[in-house]
């Protein structure tokens, strides 16, 4: 009886193995078929002239829509350049005037600082003696 059970189990295992091998081959073939179909469909889709024409038409329409905006922006940039030039013309004399007034003050402050530094140096020399 034990021998019969072992033989039956062995036959079942061999049968199961052959089914598993056959199922694996079928699954591999099925996946290869799907891959080939996807590649064919994608190639057919990309080769359609209507898709290419649609994309070109879309790009042309977007370009036509944005062209007035670009012209408007360019005009505004030119206005801003002119305004910046005007502001520079107005600010330059003011900056020169401020520079003329500040330079003597800076020179005077520098002289005072040098005098203070000399006094501190002399004081330090006398304090160490």
UniProtKB/TrEMBL annotation:
Keywords: Coiled coil, Signal
Signal sequence annotation: 1-20
Gene3D superfamilies: Apolipoprotein (1.20.120.20)
SUPFAM superfamilies, sorted: Apolipoprotein A-I
Residue ranges the record marks as coiled coil: 70-126
Name of the molecule in the record: Type-4 ice-structuring protein
